[in-house]
């Protein structure tokens, strides 16, 4: 009685470890900015309207508010960033 050994084809090669490491290095090159939390108190009626608006438009409240704030406060150009605030800025 002889023992039979069945040989199968080699399993497919796993992804190259070097490629995986390279992608990890590339992702570390771009610094990720940790967002800051903003907490505000709003009237319950306002909160209800805000929430209802976001539900109707299928958008998270946080995304909606970020968009509104971004439109109200666009990123300043480099020439505007270096100037000192004037008296008209504080009014």
Walkthrough of the structure:
The structure is a single chain. With 91 residues, this protein is an all-alpha fold. The protein has a domain at 40-74. Helix content is 46%, strand content 0%. It has helices at 17-29, 44-56, 61-72, 78-81. The protein is elongated, with a radius of gyration of 28 Å. The model has no long low-confidence stretch (mean pLDDT 80).
What's this, in brief?
By secondary structure, this protein is mainly α. The chain has helices at 17-29, 44-56, 61-72, 78-81.
The tally of beta strands, per DSSP, is: 0
Low-confidence stretches: none
User: Judging from the principal axes of the Cα atoms, what is the shape?
Assistant: elongated
Number of helices: 4
Helicity level: 40-55%
Question: Which structural class should the secondary elements be placed in?
Answer: mainly alpha
> Largest sheet at a glance?
none
Q: Which terms summarize this structure?
A:
single chain; 91 residues; mainly alpha; 4 helices; 46% helix
Question: Topology of this structure?
Answer:
Blueprint: H1 17-29, H2 44-56, H3 61-72, H4 78-81
